[in-house]
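so my prof wants the structure for this chain in the tokens format not the other one, which i didnt know existed until like an hour ago. anyway here's the sequence
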Amino acid sequence: MTPPIIKMMLAGCCLILSMACHRVVSTGESGADHPAGSLFIIGGGNRPPEMIRDLCDLALEDTAGTIFVFPHASAEPDTSFFYAALQFRAQGYARVCNVFPGVDKEVRTTLLDSVRVGRLIFLAGGDQTRFMEQVSGTPLQEALQDAFENGAVIAGTSAGAAVMSKIMITGDQQKYPEYTGDFRTIEADNMILSEGLGLLTSAVIDQHFIRRMRMNRLLSVVLEHPGLTGIGIDESTALHVQGREGTVYGTGQVMVFRTVADAVRTDNGLLGARNIRLDLLLPGDTIHW
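here's what i got, hopefully its the right format
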């Protein structure tokens, strides 16, 4: 028979081991670096119904769920909301909510509380700088971040995709201030960047990527920020991101650039590099970075 003192010591050891194991699991699965939510980053253009179905399936258990739309990037937010809601309603989701200024303070507080516990939030397209001017540092941004931490799927298209990363591409160039949509060089100190929502800190997003030939733009940003992954998403295509893993949905391609600090150099304003890693992903492909 085991003496009582030995039994107590064994029980104490088991309790300590159990607590230690619990701490390891919790650290690996949660915390600021591992939000419970995920991102569904759409490259803009037409959104295939099948891709929207996939998005809803990732976020919502049934069609009774509420979808919250942020049309703040658009110059015509009501129109932007209308077309986004139309597509979700075509999938059977009747509860689509417009999160936009105009309601009184009491109603707005209740709405933001609902956003914080929402399961699917959609950031519509337009101008990413316009979006951040309206949302940055406001209760709207806090509600988005809380929802992400609580497990929501944050989806965004075009400008709504660009705002997800901490370092945000604005689309403007320092050396060529007249906007043409062309990015003909890979130069240092040219791309104008700003701060996005910071939901994605390990990568920077570019959209309409292959359709509008934006490789030079994203490559310039990645070369000037070694260690940051560049993700270019084409139209009618999405990358579902959780942590540092992404899976491609839709009908197009996703291009991923990665480099290291000691591989980059500058000569007369031109950027150069060796050992750049490039991945070109197709629908169904998964990538880790």
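also thought this was worth mentioning. The domain at 35-288 is CATH 3.40.50.880 (Rossmann fold).
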